[in-house]
């Protein structure tokens, strides 16, 4: 009994941290050092409990193999209000991430940006373009000839920069290298995945 | 007495002085100038590779110490003709140095407090904000006032890296960067050399990374086969020790490894 | 009663969605269409409940002037299985020293920082700025108009602080007594000295 309770707590921590990505049952078993049976059982208990408990604002959603937290639909109104509320930072976070990537890695395509972020980035790019902070600077070589993005002079003005080199350096540039490594893995992973299918 | 001193171990001349004051158990308000100056000199001599930039800072401090020391050596009062110097005598020549040391010590302690806080905040995790842009129509999004500076942008970037770091292993476990057995053999041998030719088996596995553990283990087996290392265990269940048996030529690593 | 329950659910939804941006009490009141009193009361109830309920893996923490969900510390091990290098990210001694000086003496210039440390500090300042822990907060008066540095919201978030006032007090100038003793000694010494003459 006690261990199931701990398992619930662990699963709640893990699903929370993984956010929109979610985790598979296999991953949960590995991460909690538990058995598939126990995890299955606990997930079921949790799904029912979250759903029926009126105090809870999140539920567990199963999407294909992945389990993730999502908000209860009945709270959609206050979430919508959060979206419209101009003090909310969650919107600028996405834009700022994309802006940082474009600023440091330009010229760069949308697909490359999405690879780095791990999420779709069409909207933030659109927003930044509409604000005149980024622009098309050319086309990539090869098939598709994807649009390449770069920053604008307005970007420099907005951030009070003399030129693009005046951007503060990233910590020893290691961050970027690491990122590229991970992306390589990601790409390989996706390739393997596609081939399997 | 001889010391092994590394520059990186000190955050500058003030840090070194604090270290000496501590070790010599000197009262910070009554520093024995002769003692500390000679110790300080020994230390900066022992620091073999000083970067030029840093060296100058250590040398300036050496000069300061010497000048304070010589001022201290002046007799406190001699005869009446020295009366003019009276005022100067009342000002302890060490005063400025002491107040600098005390000021620095405060922030050094504050830094270690921050380090503790850093450690304890490593015990909990948050999640990045959910991407809500799907709820937002693009036109509205474009009107959204972006009130940020370069540092907000960098902050956002760091947050993203943190997030990346969290999900990385789940993706990367599939194909991890490979360390060759040959490279790992070199690492094991040089670790053993550093350890004086003998180390506990477990000391050779400082990482929890599975691939590295496996590679290290395979490289140990290979080294044993080539009689470069030897395993020693006094009796069952006792600690295992790995011994370096001979000087290793670089060429020995080049031999083909049979798989 | 029913409305409090709904409020809990709403707050849970909102705090989940906003993640490490967090939400202020004011924002929660606005977003849930509630009163400050009710939100305060509900937050308190939730904080206690999450903390003491062994099934829960997340708690509410006041961080960087906002309320945020964070995972329970007892689950750190299974979460760290998700992290590549749990400790590699920690700050260097030099960075910590510079950060301590900036945190307690902000706004402060580079030269003032270097004066306290007795060494050049350009690099740690760069690293800290790149990590988003410090920022330019203005320019000093006078010739040169040196850059003034201060801490950021990310600083509060990184060190788990509710606000800048939550920083522990600066360690006092060693034992004050000791100093007074020395002063006493000095005075006596001077007296003796004067009498001698």
UniProtKB/TrEMBL annotation, chain B:
UniProt entry tagged with the keyword Transmembrane: no
Protein's UniProt keywords contain Protein transport: no
A Pfam family of this chain: SMC_ScpA
GO annotations of cellular component type: cytoplasm
Subcellular location: Cytoplasm
Any single GO BP term: cell division
Gene3D superfamilies: 6.10.250.2410, Structural maintenance of chromosome 1. Chain E
Listed InterPro entries: ScpA, ScpA-like_C
Keywords annotated in UniProt: Cell cycle, Cell division, Chromosome partition, Cytoplasm
Function: Participates in chromosomal partition during cell division. May act via the formation of a condensin-like complex containing Smc and ScpB that pull DNA away from mid-cell into both cell halves.
Family assignment from sequence similarity: Belongs to the ScpA family.
Subunit structure: Component of a cohesin-like complex composed of ScpA, ScpB and the Smc homodimer, in which ScpA and ScpB bind to the head domain of Smc. The presence of the three proteins is required for the association of the complex with DNA.
NCBIfam families: PRK00104.1-4
Official protein name in the record: Segregation and condensation protein A
């Amino acid at each position: 009994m006690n261990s199931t309770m701990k398992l619930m707590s662990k699963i709640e921590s893990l699903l929370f941290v993984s956010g929109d990505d979610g985790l598979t049952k296999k991953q949960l078993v590995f991460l909690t050092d538990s058995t598939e049976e126990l995890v299955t059982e606990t997930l079921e208990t949790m799904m029912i409990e979250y759903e029926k408990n009126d105090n809870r604002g999140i539920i567990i959603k199963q999407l294909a193999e992945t389990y993730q937290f999502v908000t209860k639909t009945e709270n959609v109104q206050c979430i919508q209000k959060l979206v419209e509320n101009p003090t909310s930072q969650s919107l600028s976070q996405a834009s700022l991430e994309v802006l940082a990537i474009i600023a440091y890695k330009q010229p760069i395509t949308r697909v490359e940006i999405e690879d780095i972020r791990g999420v779709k980035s069409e909207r933030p790019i659109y927003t930044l373009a509409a604000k005149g902070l980024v622009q098309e600077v050319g086309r990539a070589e090869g098939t598709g000839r994807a649009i390449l993005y770069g920053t604008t002079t307005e970007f420099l003005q907005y951030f009070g920069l003399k030129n693009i080199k005046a951007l503060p350096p990233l910590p020893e540039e290691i961050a970027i290298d690491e990122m590229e490594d991970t992306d390589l893995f990601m790409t390989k992973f996706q390739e393997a995945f596609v081939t399997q299918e | 007495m001889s010391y092994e001193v590394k520059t990186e171990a000190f955050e500058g001349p003030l840090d070194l002085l604090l270290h000496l004051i501590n070790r010599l158990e000197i009262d910070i308000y009554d520093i024995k100038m002769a003692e500390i100056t000679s110790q300080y000199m020994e230390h900066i001599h022992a620091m073999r590779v000083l970067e030029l930039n840093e060296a100058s800072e250590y040398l300036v401090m050496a000069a300061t110490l010497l000048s304070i020391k010589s001022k201290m050596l002046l007799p406190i009062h001699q005869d009446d003709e020295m009366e003019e110097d009276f005022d100067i005598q009342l000002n302890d020549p060490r005063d400025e140095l002491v107040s600098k040391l005390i000021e620095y010590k405060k922030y050094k302690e504050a830094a270690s407090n921050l380090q503790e806080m850093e450690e304890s905040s490593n015990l909990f995790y948050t999640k990045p904000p959910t991407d809500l842009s799907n709820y937002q129509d693009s036109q509205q999004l474009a009107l959204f006032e972006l009130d940020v500076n370069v540092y907000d942008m960098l902050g956002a970037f760091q947050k993203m890296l943190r997030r990346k770091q969290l999900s990385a292993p789940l993706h990367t476990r599939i194909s991890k960067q490979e360390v060759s057995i040959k490279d790992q053999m070199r690492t094991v041998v040089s670790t053993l050399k550093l350890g004086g030719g003998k180390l506990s088996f477990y000391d050779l596995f400082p990482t929890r990374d599975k691939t590295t553990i496996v590679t290290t283990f395979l490289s140990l087996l290979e080294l044993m086969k080539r009689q470069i290392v030897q395993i020693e265990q006094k009796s069952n269940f006792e600690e295992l020790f790995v011994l370096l048996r001979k000087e290793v030529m670089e060429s020995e690593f080049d031999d083909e490894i049979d798989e």
